[in-house]
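Tutorial handout. Part one gives the primary structure; part two gives the three-dimensional structure as tokens.
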Amino acid sequence: MRVSLNWLKDFVDVDVSPLELAERLTFAGLAVEGVESPGEGVTKVFTGRILKIERHPNADRLLICEISFGDSEQLKIVTGAPNVQEGQIVPVALEGATLAGGLVIKRAKLRGVESRGMLCSGQELGLDTKSLPPEQAHGVMILPADTPAGLDVKPLLGLDDTILELELTPNRGDCLSMLGVAREAAALLKLPLKYTPPNVEESLPPCTDRVKVDIEEPLLCRRYVARLMTGVKAGPSPLWMQKRLRAAGIRPISNVVDVTNYVMMEFGQPLHAFDYDTLLESRIVVRRAAENEVLVSLDGVNRELTPDMLIIADARNPVAIAGVMGGLETEVTDKTTNVLLESAYFNPASIRRTSKALGLRSDASARFEGGVDPAGCRRAADRAAQLLQQISGVQVSEGAVDNYPSPADPKMIFLRPERANFLLGTEIPGEEIAGILTRLQFDVKKAGSELIVGAPSWRGDVSMETDLVEEVARLYGYNQIPGTLPNGRTTLGKRTPNQLFRESVKDILAGCGLSEAITYSFFNPVWADLYKVPPESALRRTVNLQNPLSEEQSVMRTRITPGLVEALKRNYNRQVRSGAVFELGSVFLPASGLPEEKTALAAAAMGEAPGGWNRKVLPLDYYFLKGVLETLFQQIGLTGFFFEAEYSNPSFHPGRTSKVFAGEHELGILGELHPEVLEKLDFPMRVVAFELDLDKAANLATAVKKYQPLPRFPSVERDIAVLAPREATAEKIREAISRSGGHMLTSVSLFDVYEGGQIQAGYRSLAFSLKFQAEDRTLTDEEVTKCMDSVSGELDRKYGARLRT
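Part two.
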């Protein structure tokens, strides 16, 4: 919000410097991001009339202009501007003048002709080029024909003004206007607010005789005011209005449009002007758009409307998108003579959705989104009618059509001064609190020791006692509130058990040599096809985003692995050919209400870890990640885990993949990605990955660590080689050995697998190391041999396995 100090002084006699005012507003919650003086440094620039234009004798593109300043003296100035004509009033920089940017004008000869000044463009005077017509931004600025010659252009063009750039919070939509900021300034400076209600001379029959307004959606349009004016003559607005609009960052267009913009900046109420004669049956209908309804907006674009959008229609067709943009067919043009003026209150959420859906955001929609004052609709319409009477002499119909189905009751709030002081840590007297709120134009009445406060209609952000306390703090001054230590019981901040578990998992994986990655929770919808996910799989049931950043990030992820693989691929494309990464994050599954969010753990690796003088090269393959999982499970206290070969998951290699179990619970999958998946991803490396349901693993893990004393008696180790059928996995053989070895068998580990010519077809040799130990004695050979016999007998009975001799 750009605030012109000169305009602000129409409402309050500011008696402090611009910098002090900016500081006071900032401390009161209206942050002033910048203070600028557009005409700073501009001197000796006056209005001049072009009496005569001649061609330059020595240059085809130069003109010699004879300029008059209203007295007998006349100057000749050479210019290259193509838009100058005789009789025009233009800004003229005299010899010795200083322009924006520090340029000093000197007398000079241009191709043999002396020039004693310069005709100025708006940019050279320090004006914002966006607020000027294109031909005047860089060409010579043309002033209205009735502008006297010889005037200083600084006050004429508002170059003597100071502009405050406000950065407002979303709840202060009331300050998106000069009047709103003036209320704040008057309260802060303890000055009276100067405001005179608009006075309109109504000379035509009642507006209600010629206009009908129907509101079909009263929840989306609480109030609609229409005023009718005739005798409109399109033309430029006066210079005083143009300079104020430029100060606010708005480009002047025509008198009718400029008036609507002027009132919007003055009162914060957006207005829209219709060509009355183009409205079918002289009727306004506020309704939802029909399915597949189309409107050509003012910018000439066909807008496809949906039933979620509120529109303004005549008896048949849409004529405007409510609160966002008008329609081209009812636009006010040079041929317009009758204007219907709209001043309405539209639901902020509805305008926000429509603006976002259409990609249209304007000064008007921003104000509707912040919430305008429903009680100010009629006032804004009257002010616009008053201004159009002043600048173009229109005739106004008596009254207005004011459709206000459910006027809002004033909000009455009880305020306890002692409660306000308790919350603020102050000792402000009740009378001073009442005075502060009164200065902010709240209606304050005493009720014993309490105050009954009526909030003004434009303060939609005030609805409870604490809101009033905040208002008191703002005006009293945050810098005057004494610093105090908090009292009451304090709470020691600490992580929850779930947070501690997650952090321990990350530490364990990092200790295993993996790097943590954080990838997007948004996926490309084609990821399931790339990873060969079956059509019936629940992983394809993704949560679609209504407003995605891009098509490539339009669904919520149901797996973490694709993001990690993409990270490895990005590294590969940058000549990093090895690496191992993990991510602990959420996956999202559709549910009846909000998406179901589960915690998952995934890792991916490629290449090999480099070796050194004291270590070998470590392949980052299936066995590397299997070892990582085993370390993780042991560290978090997850027992009974094992890996079982998996051949049916299409995303993974059928011969290099395992399911991960803990007892009867399936936790996830570990394996090498399928070559066809890597081919689709255009990724030439072999990649291994695992995915775990971390919530399930956390429920099965044992948080309590158990310790046992060191053994007092020696252990006995025996090796056993077993010829077992190939379908009997090493894990099943190991389980059978552990189960049949008795309580003195403390560990079983596989150390060799052999298949060759000396082994019977369909069999393989598995060699295990067994460790026996007792807590109360040294074991004898007979005891260990008895256990070994039990093991061999169990293997023969269960799997047909026999000892290899």
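Part three, for discussion. The CA atoms of residues 141 and 631 lie 77 Å apart. The radius of gyration is 41 Å.
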